[in-house]
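Before the break, one more example. Copy the sequence into your notebook; we will annotate it together after we see the structure.
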Amino acid sequence: MTEFTSRAIRSLLELHEAELRAFLATWRRYARAGVPMPEAHGDEDYESIDRLGTHVLKAARNFLVRITEWLGRPAADLDMTEDVAEIVASADAFADAVLEGYRRHLASATDEELEAQVHKTRLGRLMSIEMLLEHAVVHPMRHRVQLERILTNGS
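Here is what the structure looks like once it is written out:
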């Protein structure tokens, strides 16, 4: 088990790992069920179940990239592939590598780094590292719940 300077980071990363793995299990179940995707409303990530899975996995990686940039210690050792077929084919290994990247790059981050800095996101919102880590937890959860709702209720 990785030792963390910040208990808050450790807790958020444990939650993130649980939610990302739960999403992957639901994503696979959804793909096997052959249920149509919800209406995309112009969102290319909803064109197929593979695109949605890739979106969630790439987002997990990209949150880490952004956090390490904000910390001033960019993670240059991550798999930056964008290829849907490649990510889908290696989804578990991709997730494992991203989650290990979080542990490797954030183990030494402090509570002061977590809370004190406020940064502007690509969408122009102000956010602390802690808030972005919380978003990393919730993002796969939201997509998992959506897929579970469709599997259960058909909508």
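The longest strand covers residues 118-120. The helical segments are 7-33, 49-71, 84-89, 91-106, 111-116, 129-153. Try to locate both features in your own notes.
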